[in-house]
Amino acid sequence: MSADRVASAKPGAGADATLNGADDAAVLDAAIRWRIKLQYNKADASAWRAFDVWLGASPAHALVWERLQALSARLQRPAMDMPPEAAAQILRQTGTAQALRSRRKALMSLGVLAAGGWMAWQARDAQLVQHALADVATSRGERRRVVLPDGGTLVLNTDTAVNIRYGDLARRITLLAGEVYLISGSDPLSRPLFVETRDGQARALGTRYRVRQWDEASEVSVDEGMVAMLPRDGGDAAGKTLQAGESARMTRQKVFSAGPIDTRVMDGGAWVEGALSVRDMPLAAFLQELSRYHGAIECDPAVARLSVSGVFQLDDTHKVLALLRQILPIEPQSGRLWWGGRVTRVRARA
Description:
Distance between the termini: 59 Å
Number of domains: 3
Order of helices and strands: HHHHHHHEEEEEEEEEEEEEEHEEHEE
Shape: flat
Structural class: alpha+beta
CATH class of the largest domain: Mainly Beta
Number of helices: 9
């Protein structure tokens, strides 16, 4: 199987298809993942069969695939003047003359790395590449439990990507994005077990612990046992060991002071059981956390300070918003962002 097959898969199959607003982003994301996997990741026969099933499942899949192929074939220089989200919306347009002209503009505005390099539609699409190439990944709203080679368990939270490497000298889990909960297994070879982030590493010392990668730092919270934290650029002297019940954040240069795991406002580990557990949490902060599972949520400043308490199930975030509407004087409304993406706007009830 070669890249030629990627380029020739069912050309024109989606010519008469149309996309609806609810599903277009998901179809585009799936198409990007398939292209990366098939062209750049040495897909095997089972992957090609799975792709054929996906491609034939809907005319919309074939339509988006055809447009993605056309775009990828003509891209020649790095992105300069068009936001990636706007170009993505062009891909979703129907085949009108105006859409074709817009698409030509997109071809001149977007780019991929030369010589068969990775597709990079900046920000959001770079993350799609990262997720597509990770050993294990979850999409928004998804959680996943993985049994590790040593019998341990790794739980992935929403929108998370990890690589798992068990070598002769060490067991390494690289957290590329998101959040994980690790229950370490017993290794007959006594190899050290690490969770690594861009900021440093957290070595398990017979333990259960959680690691979350924030924009500005990585956070480690220990439920059982101990964890040795070491920042990437700080040297051995900058490391700290956390005991059960402790939490700390780490940048590339240092580990900040450890303290008790703070559950006064939010139980940061409740997601492992599929819940969001909060107490007197400001609505704006609650919605920001919920958006990790739901998608974009905007909170009107007029209701931002309303207090939220309770245990909310994460499997259906629309029900969470409906429940908030019952207990608070708010009105969640679905809308569109300027580039076409979906957003939920939470305002004061009239």
